[in-house]
Amino acid sequence: MCGIVGYTGDQQAAPILLAGLEKLEYRGYDSAGLAVRDGERVPEVVKAKGRLRALAEKTDNGRAMRGNCGIGHTRWATHGEPSENNAHPHCTDDRSVVAVHNGIIENYQEIREKLIKNGYTFYSDTDTEVAVKLIDHYYKKYNEGPLDAMARAMMRIRGTYALAVMFKDYPEEIFVARQDNPMIIGVGEGESFIASDVPPLLPYTRKVYYIGNQELGRLHKGEVTFYNIDQEEIQKELVTIEWDAEAAEKGGYEHFMIKEIHEQPRAVRDTLNSVIRDGHIDLTEAGLSDDVIRSLKRIYIVACGSAYHAGVAAQYVIEDLARIPVRVELASEFRYRNPILEENSLVIIISQSGETADSLAALRLAKSQGVPTMAIVNVVGSTIAREADHIFYTLAGPEIAVATTKAYSTQLVAGYLLGVQFAHVRGTITEEKYEELLAALQELPDQIAKLLEDDKERIQWFAAKYANAKDVFFIGRGIDYAVSMEGSLKLKEISYIHSEAYAAGELKHGTISLIEDGILVVSILTQEALYEKMISNMVEVKCRGAYLMGLTTAGNYNIEDTVDFAVYIPKTDEHFTPSLAVVPLQLLGYYVSVSKGLDVDKPRNLAKSVTVE
Ligand code: F6R
């Protein structure tokens, strides 16, 4: 989704804004723009459709735009086609108000009509231009300054926004406001920054403020003041970001995705170590006491996309080990289906970004019904992390590639840790089993590292061979079905090859009619009790012409009698096989995309942090 940056200080703003936007490219965008002002002069606005490169060329890498204060934006079109005209920043005709905006203003039509009656005209199709002109309207009508105009606009606007605004009469200052869209304010020596996410800030400062919903901020050079919507000054905590700047760079890898795939052993180890202490899982930091765990009658896991797939895997683990009924749901469905949430339930929201609009709405729905909530989140200080009752941070570090890999892997681990600990506290596993499971968990990082070492080249070769496939099926049973879903999504989202995940036993109920000569079927079979059933399903598709890739545990070498291409994962406890099985599938998606020469890290139409529903 859109990205916002802002700067006021003593340096030239445009190169800093461009560098910041580059760090937000992963969010997905189709046009970009800058507004920079030199002292008291009105801001100069430059925009370009397409990649950021076009904007950099137009501005001579920012050198052609003089000034120490500015705002920048990458736009992911919602209202109006991707075009230079619709790109941000948007401004009034006299450029007295210039702004960038993330989010959606739902009642923009109604506001637009009101403004037309007041003599305003519109040059774009965007809701943002409407917001800018509404602020301008209040600014001129009441003459009470920028905060007043913005607060009035906030009361009139329905929807979501992160807004950064420059007013002609207030040189060297940027005014910001927020409702349900991410925005972070950084402060350095004599300079202040705005960004939608942490990476653009890291080269300059680690000291940040998180602005809350319905709050406003006024940025001067190196100083920020915050206000509530009644324009009363409020105090905010200055937080230090722990991520190091290198974590958000490619570090010699061709793409962020492959770098992040290789970071999985570290990410999984850090996440495990954050709660395993002295040979025990300790969830006290998440605030989950043993009494709460014992009282649980039902768990709802709610998430989107890959995070949902991690939730499906967690369901198998928690139900099997802790014997607590778990229901996993897509956040976009959960939020609108008026769910019946039983007493003594826990709603777990899983989200890498902590900003996904549907997941956030699901969290708020659960809270409004008085049900305790827990968030498994990667981004510290994100909205979901701040609003949930309990928080389990995954320690994946910044994830830049749009297709998640390391964050998904840490979400899996968070699910296992909850399952194992819930089982231990509720006495559904023995002490011996608990220790065995903990030992298996702690082996996972090295096993993932080994898989990466052993399998990369073979998968690369196989991916090149299948890069022209039209349809691919991923099949599995039990927890392998959860991994099939993630493998299928990884392939389709970055290679644009149609693929579907199926519970292997379900194929016969319709889908098998799609199987024809040469179609690739990726079969995952890591569960001993389901192994033979899987082989039967695989034979059924093979005899109809499918080309079979089999992904199974080392030792099951007889699989070679059935499949055309076999991949083995190291032995682990069967609850934890998703962490290993997903690695070759991530590599498969990655190398198919590379073979096709596609933009691996920024697949078309996708955004990293989906802040609109
Ligand atoms: C796919 C992917 C998405 C996200 C989904 C949820 O590779 O990354 O499916 O998993 O958009 O995002 P978060 O986890 O940020 O809530």
TrEMBL record:
Catalyses which reaction(s):
D-fructose 6-phosphate + L-glutamine = D-glucosamine 6-phosphate + L-glutamate
One GO process term, biological-process aspect: protein N-linked glycosylation
Pfam families reported for this sequence: GATase_6, SIS
GO molecular function annotation: carbohydrate derivative binding; glutamine-fructose-6-phosphate transaminase (isomerizing) activity
The protein's predominant localisation is cytoplasm
What keywords tag this UniProt record? Aminotransferase, Cytoplasm, Glutamine amidotransferase, Repeat, Transferase
Q: Domain SIS: where? A: 288-428, 462-603
> What's the EC number here?
2.6.1.16
Which PROSITE patterns does this UniProt record tie to the protein? GATASE_TYPE_2, SIS
Q: Where is the active site?
A: 2, 608
Q: Does the keyword Iron apply?
A: no
- Please report the stretch or stretches of sequence annotated as the Glutamine amidotransferase type-2 domain: 2-230
Q: What would be one Gene Ontology cellular-component term for the protein?
A: cytosol
Which compartments does it reside in?
Answer: Cytoplasm
Main enzyme class: transferase
User: Could you tell me what this protein does?
Assistant: Catalyzes the first step in hexosamine metabolism, converting fructose-6P into glucosamine-6P using glutamine as a nitrogen source.
Describe the protein's quaternary organization and the partners it interacts with: Homodimer.
What's the protein called, per UniProt?
Answer: Glutamine--fructose-6-phosphate aminotransferase [isomerizing]
Native organism is: Clostridium fessum
Identify the taxonomic lineage of the organism of origin.
Answer: Bacteria, Bacillati, Bacillota, Clostridia, Eubacteriales
This protein's encoding gene: glmS
